[in-house]
Design brief:
Layout (H helix, E strand, L loop, with lengths): L1 E2 L9 E7 L4 H10 L3 E7 L6 H4 L6 E5 L7 H8 L6 E6 L3 H7 L6 E5 L3 H21 L5 E6 L7 H14 L5 E6 L6 H5 L7 H6 L6 H5 L3 E2 L5 E3 L13 H14 L2 E6 L5 H8 L3 E6 L3 H16 L7 E6 L9 H8 L3 E5 L4 H7 L4 H4 L4 H13 L20
Parallel strand pairs: 2-3, 2-4, 4-5, 5-6, 7-11, 7-12, 8-10, 8-11, 12-13, 13-14
Antiparallel strand pairs: 1-3, 9-10
The structure holds adenosine-5'-triphosphate (ATP) and magnesium ion.
Magnesium ion (MG) binds next to helix 6.
């Protein structure tokens, strides 16, 4: 097996070749040189190619078969790793195969030898059809990422209460993803004891799809699904950018909203999350070190070309009497504060009872402010048919 490159590219079609047949070597050499194809790798055995086949990053699998009839087992083996469209290659006369392929899960069949351009066209066509199909499956869940460059500012409190509120008060299909990969404590704040974590999900064999994702989340009593951080800090590195990118794509198919709790770093998984983030909640506090670091984060986000209109600054513990006012924070940040959350005894009480404040003390000032924020954040178009009640449509939450 050879793996030539795994770097994703936007313009080229990412292709993996499996199997073998007469004429394949010439074709794969020509494809490797072709400007519109990124040949990720090639493996005669589907099982050996399993690693690069999985992860959801391929646009097309070219599978060459020596069989004169439809290679059902070979196709099933590929499907264990990827949902990418399969273009079947065979050599010589294979009329039985062509006939069977009409009803099979293959995008196209090409009998070799073929002009390279014909194969490239079939690949592009199959890739387009695959993209249309995956769009048709949904994929418009909203990703709301809660970030702060300082520890202890209230990221997890905000993320857990927000996600609970979306699930419980707005009846949204909500996933809370704990991306504080080393020391995540979203599960403990919610009082759940998960059997599986994001680490189990990313190391599990086979391609990720909504059914598989559902097998790794833990349901909270509010209706919220939680994908917790790994139990051991050393397992954090297993959650690669590529795995996370696929995870978010699948989650967007299954959920109306995905709330992401984070650690105070711009590491690889965080950057992959930013790429798919619709709303970035940047948590700030009324202390100079936090303000300095939030300001630096805003500059970093600008360098990363993260759209400014997606950033919402939250001032947590906004009513604390510490000799600083909202206007001074805004002046220092050169950014408007979009939401204020009050300092409230209900919050540490709720944390210590492992029950989010919006549930354990819904009348507390913090809970009210949080619910108002949730209503503002969740635009009406996020609602899907499965929702019970909806924010922003005159419903009481
Ligand atoms: N508005 C608030 N009122 C009162 N206490 C608060 C408020 N927000 C957060 N806290 C307290 O601050 C503590 C830290 O909050 P939290 O764990 O959410 O911070 P974090 O940003 O996630 O920290 P880390 O970076 O360590 O994960 C919580 O245990 C909570 O009790
Ligand atoms: Mg936290």
């Amino acid at each position: 097996m050879t793996v030539e490159s795994q770097a994703p590219s936007r313009e080229k079609s990412r292709v993996f070749i499996t199997g073998g047949c007469e004429g394949l070597n010439e074709l794969s050499e020509a494809l490797a040189r072709h400007g519109e194809i990124e040949l990720v790798g090639q493996s005669d055995s589907v099982r050996e190619g399993g690693g690069p086949l999985s992860g959801g990053h391929l646009q097309v699998v070219l599978h060459a078969t020596r069989s004169s009839v439809l290679p059902v087992d070979e196709l099933a083996a590929i499907r264990e790793y990827t949902r990418a469209p399969i273009v079947l290659l065979a050599s010589g006369e294979s009329s039985a195969l062509l006939e069977d392929a009409l009803d099979a899960d293959v995008a196209d069949v090409l009998l070799l030898p073929q002009l390279t351009e014909n194969v490239v066209f079939a690949v592009r066509k199959a890739g387009h059809a695959g993209r249309r199909q995956s769009k048709g499956r949904g994929g418009d869940g909203r990703v709301i990422t809660v970030f702060s460059p300082k520890g202890g500012t209230g990221k997890t409190v905000t993320a857990t209460n927000l996600a609970t509120s979306f699930a419980k008060h707005a009846g949204k299909r909500t996933l809370l993803l704990d991306l504080d990969l080393q020391f995540g404590d979203a599960a403990i704040m919610l009082g759940i004891e998960p059997e599986k974590t994001i680490q189990d999900l990313v190391v599990a064999p086979g391609e990720l799809d909504p059914e598989k994702l559902a097998g790794y989340t833990t349901r909270h009593s509010s209706g919220l699904d939680v994908l917790p951080a790994p139990i051991r800090p050393e397992d954090a590195e297993l959650v690669t950018e590529q795995k996370l990118a696929r995870l978010l794509e699948v989650a967007k198919e299954s959920y109306d909203v995905i709330v992401v709790d984070t650690s105070p770093f711009f590491h690889g998984p965080m950057l992959a999350t930013l790429d798919r983030t619709d709303d970035l909640l940047l948590v700030c506090g009324l202390d100079v070190p936090t303000i300095k670091n939030v300001r630096l984060s805003l500059q970093t986000l600008q360098l990363l070309s993260f759209p400014n209109e997606r950033i919402r600054v939250i001032l947590n513990r906004a009513n604390s009497n510490v000799g600083m006012k909202r206007g001074e924070v805004e002046a220092a940040l050169e950014a408007k504060i979009r939401f204020e959350l009050p300092s409230d005894r209900a919050v540490p009480l709720a944390v210590n009872r492992s029950n989010p404040a919006v549930l354990s003390d819904p009348k507390a000032d913090f809970s009210r402010a949080l619910r108002e924020m949730a209503k503002t954040l969740l635009p009406a178009q996020v609602s899907k048919n499965g929702g019970k009640r909806k924010f922003g449509r005159g419903s009481k939450s």
